[in-house]
Amino acid sequence: MTKSVHHWIGGSTVEGTSGAWGPVTDPATGEAGTRVALASAAEVDAAVAAARTAFETWGTSSLAQRTGIMFRFRALLDAHRDEIAALITAEHGKVHSDALGEVARGLEIVDLACGITTQLKGELSTQVSNRVDVSAIRQPLGVVAGITPFNFPAMVPMWMFPLAIACGNTFVLKPSEKDPSASMRLAELLTEAGLPDGVFNVVHGDKAAVDRLLEHPDVAAVSFVGSTPIARYVHRKASEHGKRVQALGGAKNHMLVLPDADLDAAADAAVSAAYGSAGERCMAISAVVAVGAIGDELVEKIRERAEKIKVGPGNDPDSEMGPLITAAHRDKVASYVTGAAAEGCEVVLDGTGYTVEGHENGHWIGLSLLDKVPTGARAYQDEIFGPVLCVLRAETYEEGVALINASPFGNGTAVFTRDGGAARRFQLEVQAGMVGVNVPIPVPVGYHSFGGWKDSLFGDHHVYGNDGVHFYTRGKVVTTRWPDPSEAPTGVDLGFPRNH
Q1: CB crowding 207-227: b at 16 or more within 10 Å, else e
Q2: In this predicted structure, what is the pLDDT of residue 273?
Q3: Segment 386-417, tens digit of pLDDT
Q4: What is the structure's pLDDT at 263?
């Protein structure tokens, strides 16, 4: 190991004391040149204590101070986007252009945080009764925590902490231990922007660190993004300890292609959305539903495009798709392809066994395409989280929508068509939180909210946008009466107050 990643507590790097370490592997080489400290419960407690102390002053800081820091942070983030993207590529494996896109989408939420003065404006009603005014304000919660996944080590944390901090909260981030360096660089940039010590903290770790955050009495709210089983667990455990929770789970995103669609555009979109970032996206298209007689032609167009994708190291400018995060995950993804034929799938492309010359120990897998996939096949039932695209067939629009709505997941979905009426009907009838019309990955812009339905979301709030602001604040209503100096006392009245 040539590099050690420690924690960030109280405004500086704090060396891990638990004695437990996890390897951080370069997915393109399979080499673990970095290790990350895994926090004990005591180290999590130290981070929460630093955040709690910081909240005493940060929670009442001016909006001008908070937004000033956010503007400076945004400028630093913009200036260092290439550096952060390189850290992501080195530990996650995604190609550099994709990593740059991740940073850019995170910047959108920082933009929203820079405008928090508008988001936190209250309401006032005057003269609701004789000399009585009512105002509504929103105040921060206190210490809040974020638990984020490996697939977007910069963007997903930025879905959370900029808004949380701008709203006046202090933050403890537990990023994925598989690619921890980007979060540490973000912490350094926040400090450089002038964020007071303890407002933002980072603790690395595994389940023990997560459980301590979920149980800690001083943590008021938890944001989580990950798989559905873990999202369900986080929601239940944090709720049991009285916390506000938003837990985003897994997905099986469908793309419905109607007979009138531009099949070239649909094929381009399917390949881009299914295989980008090696399929390690919760908004990846993993199931295409071809309606009517277009199935064979659409599959052939997808195959032609998929075969031309160049797989290689993320730092190679010629690479379009990188490796998977770990060898174990690569093997799991491959199992869905090797077992597909026995479950009734037609294997059009088999990406298993793929290697890259000079990087034979990397976590490689090629692009796989399965056609005529039965709904009972494992490749359809599970969130694969890899470069495997399933194509299903439906005779009619109604059959296609029913198939999508039968899925337990409801994160995102898309329809490709030239028919505006069909598109409008689809967006109203489909059971998913985010819908694209001729847009394969309908991730909302920063000033709208991101979140799914059904087993893709546990909790009442989506992330960022207005939902994010509401999640990180709580409402308070103030009723005020200032009597006129000449007004005589009204006397005792035990009746329930009425407005008049």
Answers
A1: eebbbbbbebeebbbbbbbbb
A2: 98
A3: 999 999 999 999 999 999 999 999 999 999 99
A4: 98
Q: Is 439 left (phi over 0), alpha (psi -120 to 50) or beta?
A: beta
Asked if pLDDT for residue 486 goes beyond 90, the answer is no
Closest CA to 109 of 150, 56, 57, 146: 146
Written as one letter, the residue type at 3 is: K
Please write down the HEC assignment for all residues of the chain.
Answer: CCEEECEEECCEEECCCCCCEEEEEECCCCEEEEEEECCCHHHHHHHHHHHHHHHHHHCCCCHHHHHHHHHHHHHHHHHCHHHHHHHHHHHHCCCHHHHHHHHHHHHHHHHHHHCHHHHCCCEEEEEEECCEEEEEEEEECCEEEEECCCCCCCHHHHHHHHHHHHCCCEEEEECCCCCCHHHHHHHHHHHHCCCCCCCEEECCCCHHHHHHHHHCCCEEEEEEECCHHHHHHHHHHHHHCCCEEEEECCCCEEEEECCCCCHHHHHHHHHHHHHHHHHCCCCCEEEEEEEHHHHHHHHHHHHHHHCCCCECCCCCCCCCECCCCCHHHHHHHHHHHHCCHHHCCEEEECCCCCCCCCCCCCCCCCCEEEECCCCCCHHHHCCCCCCEEEEEEECCHHHHHHHHHCCCEECEEEEECCCHHHHHHHHHHCCCCEEEECCCCCCCCCCCCECCEECCEEECCCECHHHHHHHCEEEEEEEEECCCCCCCCCCCCCCCCCCC
Ramachandran region, residue 205 (left: φ > 0; alpha: ψ -120 to 50; beta: rest): left
Residue 41 neighbours by CB distance under 10 Å: 16
345 among known catalytic residues: no
Each residue of 81-139: pLDDT tens digit?
999 999 999 999 999 999 999 999 999 999 999 999 999 999 999 999 988 999 999 99
The answer for residues whose C-beta is within 8 angstroms of residue 214's C-beta and 6 or more apart is 222, 234, 237, 238, 241, 243
Percent of the chain with pLDDT strictly greater than 90: 95
**Active site residue: 114, 167, 282, 345, which one?**
282
Residue 278, number of CB atoms within 10 A of its CB: 33
